Amino acid sequence: MSNLGLKLERPTGHRAQRPKRRGLGCIVTLLVVALVCVAGYLGIEKGTDALRGWLGPPPDYQGQGSGSGSAEVEIAKGDSIAQIGRTLEEQGVVASVDAFVDVAQQDPRSLSIQPALYELREKMAAKWALEELLDTANRIQGAVTIPEGARVDQVVKLVAKNTDIKRADLVAALEEPGRLGLPRAAGGNPEGYLFPATYHIRPDADADDVLRQMVKKAKEVKQQMHIDRRAERLGLSAREAVIVASIIEYEARRNADLPKVARVIYNRLDADMALQMDSTVSYISNRKGDPWTTDAERSSSSAYNTYKHKGLPPGPIGSPGEETLRAALEPAEGDWMYFVTTNFETGETKFTDSYAEHQKNVAESKKYCRSSKLC
User: Fewer CB in a 10 Å sphere around the end CB: N or C, the chain?
Assistant: First the structure.
């Protein structure tokens, strides 16, 4: 606390008072040091058990739930027992992480907890929380995984296949994109804005609910990545960055090549050269099965035909994931103008700034494909 500028004088005629002994503080410090040493000597796990033995069991509720309500608990794929315990504690289901971890570590069934959304009672004993997570009746939905690069028609098929939502309802919702909460940059087109991820779908969810969830996720990721600001540094709009990322999603075979493909795209744009990406042509023809396109496909007048039209296509050709979005925003340094995958098993892709060398690489790629079912 400030003395407001006053000078405090020590009274004359009296000896300074010695500070009081801190014997009790020293004893507490020594006890703490001793406990830590025990933990180190016995090993972390045994030492922790010993500490708990001295300090008492972790906080835990009693019974199968005494709270006034219920909680929705989402268990994500890859969550550890401790992470699950933290989620349960945060949602008011268990009294402490440690109580749940103690119970789960003693029950091998805990390793079979499935990622899903669960409806659980509040204030449950840790042992009952574990039992409820193991009971499939408490899962309140199915899960739908949308892969990176998925296009609108693929999203519709996956949702219809894994939920009770009808395809017709999904199509109807997509035909009125204003209902989905699309960002202004989407221009009313949901392609590229149904973010690839695993979604837990409630039984009472309808087509609008599911699609809005995907759009919301896309907006959250793009905000977290500061796409608007980072795209502007490259001379792009946020929408153009998404378009570039969607092309990279289909053109690159390995994560290490994502930023290099981005650089080729930007180098061609800077040189006022047609992108000539087979992925955008395949988007028009809905071609599947191999990476090549035909003369007939490349003669299309569609604005997505980057052989015929310079610049970026008018919209994304799929929903890019975080890795490809990052590559679009952080392209590699290089003067490459061409690339082609020459080994579809390893994903080996060759980059060059020489058209003559590129032609040799294309010949190598086609030779590989003649003897491989991978392309």
Answer: N
Give the CB-side neighbour count of residue 303, counting CA atoms within 13 A.
7
Instruction: Tell me the pLDDT band of 42, cut-offs 50, 70 and 90.
Output: very low
CATH class as words, domain 70-138: alpha beta
What CA–CA distance (Å, rounded) separates 346 from 254?
9
Q: Which residues contact 316 (CB under 8 A, 6 or more apart)?
A: 191, 192, 193, 242, 243, 245, 246
Cα distance between residue 51 and residue 62, in whole Å: 23
Residue range 276-297, pLDDT digits in tens: 999 999 999 988 767 789 999 9
Quick one: 119 exposed, middle or buried, by C-beta within 10 A (0-12, 13-18, 19+)? middle
Main-chain phi, psi angles of 42, to 5 degrees: -80, -15
| Separation of alpha carbons 242 and 137, rounded Å | 40
CA distances from 306 to 89, 298, 361 (A): 53, 8, 21
Torsion angle of alpha carbons 182, 183, 185, 187, nearest 10°?
A: 30
Report strand pairing: 198-201 vs 338-343. Answer: unpaired
What token pair was written down for 165? 């939502």
Q: Which residues pair with 31 in a beta bridge?
A: none
* Residue boundaries of the structural domains of the chain: 70-138, 142-224, 227-370
- Bridge-based pairing state of the strands 348-352 and 116-121: unpaired
- List, in sequence order, every residue forming a beta bridge with 81; answer none if it has no partner: none
Residue 55 has pLDDT above 90, yes or no: no
Q: What whole-number distance in Å separates Cα of residue 336 and Cα of residue 252? A: 14
The encoded tokens of residue 350 equal 């060759």
pLDDT tens per residue, range 163-178: 889 999 999 999 998 8
pTM comes to: 0.71
The answer to whether residues 118 and 75 touch, using CB atoms and an 8 Å cutoff, is yes
Ranking 194-208, 265-279, 343-357 by mean pLDDT, the lowest is 194-208
| CB atoms inside a 10 Å sphere around CB 288 | 6
The reported pLDDT for the residue numbered 19 is 44
Rg of the chain over Cα atoms, rounded to whole angstroms, equals: 30
Q: Determine contact, residues 207/165, Cβ cutoff 8 Å.
A: yes
Is the separation of the CB atoms in 343 and 367 below 8 Å?
A: no
Give 94-149 pLDDT, tens digit per residue. Answer: 999 999 999 999 999 999 998 888 989 999 999 999 999 998 888 876 789 999 99
